[in-house]
Design brief:
By secondary structure, the protein is of the alpha+beta class. The protein is built from 13 helices and 21 strands. It has 3 domains: 369 residues, 3-Layer(aba) Sandwich (Rossmann fold); 119 residues; 162 residues. 45% of the residues lie in helices and 16% in strands. The longest helix has 61 residues. InterPro entries: P-loop_NTPase.
């Protein structure tokens, strides 16, 4: 981006007033006395670009002085401003030019900007197409009719999506990037990193802006990491849902899940195949094996013809006796299991109570440690092991301890109790697992008792039936086995479908983990470090050239975390009020070096820097003449790289010309007021 011409036009009751300023490549110096309207020109440039958020948070009116909105002071008195407009001609990297037109005062809405696609300021008389855009409205940076959406495309920028404090994502607004290229006098010289608008609520706006300007991988890596983290979270949630479905199925079928990983894994299928386990007596077998056993019994029954009652009367009586004995045995076993279950539940409750007591002890010891650290009873005789009355030795234990033994300190007690808590948590998990398994055994045994009673009833009914009728017990046994086989087969089929769903999740988990490993640990790539290293070198070189004197400039580095200058690990601006106190003039020199360093990096590295900067009154805080002269000398090199550095200054004219002597530059000396009456 290059600025080519600025035109401000005012219509007053004394006729037209205005100014036209040209901006060639290289060092451009606009000189005028103080309070003559230089800052009005800088602010008009920002307003023409829709950057008033850099100047104010108010949107009710444009942040421009009364001279262009209400009353204009001129050499022949004050005049009412009837209408005013600003025109700004821009050129992009493709040498394409546009003219931006915005009304300051008049009938047109102040949030309407017209773009003329051609250099109608520097080459008037051309016939060009024009289109209106809006600013300061939702969508100005994202929709086709938004001016900043058009402007970013004109510059060839693809603005990244950034997070806000409310969790949303929006483009990195141009208003957060432009302050690194245009320093206005009111707020721009207050900090090394320029003040950015805060009402956009962008997280780490300065970091995001620098990462975009330098085209760093860090933000892309951060976005990639965020995408990977979201994918990992999605997989973990989906995995937990699959595990939940498996557990629900197991609960419905009165079985338990075995060998199913509770957390996502990249290896699938696992070495130990997940299965549903069912209790059979005191043993646990897979539900598949149980179904096979039921099927074998059913096959044996089907092979035999259903007997008549008179054919099996004697054997039915024996079966009845055996079934009654089975019921008695199972009830005895159930009674024992219930007793064990009650004791195991009590054990769980005792462990939970113990954990609660340990937690209270840990907190109590921590509170005592806090009080002691705050000075409570420090130095008292009791704490020193001496009675404050009789001065005899006392101990804080109930029983005497051996002379070789020592009482644990508070920190040791806390560590010991914390280790105890970890141990008991493991014990509690195991005990809870035993209780769950016992509960499942009890549930299954109760079903078996119920089934056995059904068999007894069927056998008794068979014995009292007509001898010519088929055996009711045999029929019911066949139906019961058919139902058991169907139930177990259904459970196994549903479980297999659930297990198969883990394969895709495992593949996605593996890919996500591999992608995460490819990212640098702190998001900053080697190319990023190279650019930041170049920036640091350029910064130091400039500080030395400008006469930085608060401390050796070689101790300054650009942080790879915040992209701010640091000294001995501390932020440059934050550290010095506590130490050597950086001078105000050195702060200004640092701002020069910091922002101009971004411009100079663009000469050798791939960045998004537009190739131009504007400084409004760069000589601040009585910076020495030699420093300002060196700044001009450094800035004059911009023309060698088709870059542009624009200074608006009221520096002593003779000294300024002395500094510029021998340097390639363009100087525009504006006598008197910048806004002058335009001849008819």
């Amino acid at each position: 981006m290059r600025f080519r011409r600025l035109t401000i036009r005012l219509q007053t009751n004394d006729g037209p007033y205005g100014v036209t300023l040209d901006f060639p490549d290289g060092l451009v110096v606009m000189w005028a006395d103080n309070s003559m309207g230089k800052s009005t020109c800088v602010k008009s440039i920002l307003v023409a670009l829709g950057m008033e958020a850099m100047l104010t948070t108010q949107q009710s009116d444009l942040p421009l002085p009364p001279a262009v909105k209400a009353r204009l002071d001129s050499d022949n008195g004050e005049h009412d401003v009837i209408e005013s407009e600003v025109f700004l001609e821009l050129e992009n990297q493709k040498a394409e030019r546009i003219v931006v037109q915005r009304t300051i005062k008049g009938s047109r809405d102040k949030n309407l900007i017209t773009v003329h696609e051609g250099p109608i300021l520097t080459s008037p008389g051309q016939s060009v197409s024009s289109r209106d855009y809006f600013v300061n409205r939702q969508g100005a940076a994202t929709r086709e009719s938004g001016f900043h959406f058009f402007l970013s495309n004109f510059f060839g920028w693809q603005l990244p999506q950034v997070q806000t404090y409310d969790g949303n994502e929006y483009p990195l607004y141009l208003q957060c990037v432009m302050p690194y290229f245009a320093v206005e006098q009111t707020r721009g010289w207050s900090t090394v990193q320029p003040p950015l608008p805060t009402h956009f609520r962008i997280r780490e706006a300065h970091k995001r802006a620098v990462e975009f300007i330098l085209n760093l991988d860090a933000h892309r890596n951060a976005l990639k990491r965020q995408e990977i983290d979201l994918e990992i979270t999605r997989i973990a949630v989906a995995w937990a849902a699959q595990v939940g479905r498996a557990n629900e199925l197991a609960e419905q079928k009165a079985v338990r899940v075995q060998a199913l990983p509770q957390k996502p894994t990249a290896t699938w299928p696992p070495l130990v195949t997940p299965s549903l386990m069912a209790p059979v007596g005191s043993e646990w077998i897979s539900i598949r094996d149980r179904a096979d056993g039921f099927q074998a019994e059913l096959d044996n029954l089907v092979k035999k013809e259903i007997p008549r009652v008179n054919e099996i009367a004697s054997s039915a009586q024996a079966e009845l006796t055996a079934a009654e004995e089975v019921i008695q045995d199972k009830q005895t076993l159930l009674s024992r299991l219930l007793e064990s279950f009650a004791m195991e539940q009590q054990e769980v409750e005792r462990i939970e109570e113990r954990l609660k007591a340990i937690a209270e002890d840990i907190q109590r010891n921590k509170d005592i440690r806090v009080l002691k650290n705050l000075g409570s009873r420090q130095g008292s005789a009791v704490d020193g092991g001496s009675c404050p009355i009789c001065h005899q030795s006392i101990h804080d234990t109930l029983v005497p301890i051996d002379f070789a033994q020592t009482v644990m300190s508070l920190d040791e007690s806390i560590d010991f109790l914390s280790e105890q808590r970890r141990t008991y948590e493991v014990v509690l998990a195991n005990a809870a697992n035993v209780v769950d398994s016992r509960s499942l055994q009890i549930s299954t045994l109760r079903e078996e008792v119920s089934t056995a009673r059904q068999i007894v009833r069927a056998l008794r009914q068979t014995l009292v039936s007509d001898g010519r009728q088929p055996s009711i017990a045999a029929i019911q046994a066949q139906i019961r086995l058919e139902n058991s086989v169907a139930n177990d087969r259904d459970a196994q089929s549903r479980f297999e479908k659930i297990v198969n769903g883990f394969g895709e999740l495992a593949d996605s988990w593996k890919i996500a983990q591999e992608e995460a490993l490819k990212l640098p640990k702190d998001d900053v790539s080697e190319d990023d470090r190279k650019k930041i290293g170049i920036w640091t070198r350029i910064l130091r070189d400039q500080l030395s050239q400008y006469g930085f004197g608060s401390f050796p400039e070689t101790q300054i580095v650009i942080s790879t975390d915040t992209y701010r200058p640091e000294h001995e690990g501390f932020d440059l601006e934050a550290s010095f009020p506590l130490q050597n106190s950086i001078s105000a003039s050195d702060l200004i020199r640092t701002i020069w070096a910091y922002l101009n360093g971004l411009l100079e990096i663009a000469r050798t590295e791939d960045t998004h820097h537009p190739g131009c900067i504007i400084f409004d009154e760069p000589r601040q805080q009585s910076t020495r003449d030699v420093s300002f002269g060196e700044l001009l000398k450094r800035a004059s090199l911009a023309g060698n790289f088709s870059q542009q550095v624009i200074f608006f200054t009221s520096e002593n004219r003779e000294r300024l010309k002395g500094h510029l002597s021998g340097l390639p530059h363009y100087l525009n000396e504006i006598e008197g007021r910048v806004l002058k009456k335009i001849p008819s």
